[in-house]
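Sample intake — Outer membrane beta-barrel protein
Collected from: Flagellimonas spongiicola
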Amino acid sequence: MGNKRILIIAMVMLTFGNALAQDVQNTDGSKWQFRLRGIVVTPDESADIEAIGGDASISTAVVPEFDITYFFNENWSMELILATTKHDVEAVGTAAGDLDLGHVWLLPPTLTGQYHFTGGDFIPYVGAGLNLTLFYGVNEGPVADNVDYDTTIGYALQSGFDYMLNDKWFLNLDVKKLFLNTDATVNATTALGATVGADVDINPWIIGFGVGVKL
């Protein structure tokens, strides 16, 4: 993602924060909300691979997710989303055939600003924010000597709803789209006699269902 896009998102988040600061005087006090979801992470991947061409294939993951939400007032909140996922990676359709690049773990903490539509037990919301993705636990597979992924900053869009079971507990359905891009370097000098760079778009859809509590 380009610096210009990151700057625009940062300005939007700053404006959002200023609006909340001005509106916080209308609240009855801070409210915390915690959710535990099961999520399905499905990459919408593509890649521009140097020299050998081809594309990327990244597996779907199913993992638990934990998030923390702070309400400035009845409608506005900020949410921190925490999860980690493991994905198998392949370079497919290259001049050297399909290449198994092992697996990698992603740690993508995401912070979103949200607006909640109140008025009953059914509470829809929308959100947008920023994401930082760290890559760790890389297993390079049988072909590469080493695979390196650059840490990346992306952005996120979100929608979902809470359904209140009582004043404290609720069910949640949440859908997020993360826009993630990383530069990967594959050192395959033993097998291919070359080090290959790739510009990889991961861009996962994240669909989650779970339970939450208000404190």
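Post-analysis note: The first helix runs from residue 3 to 23.
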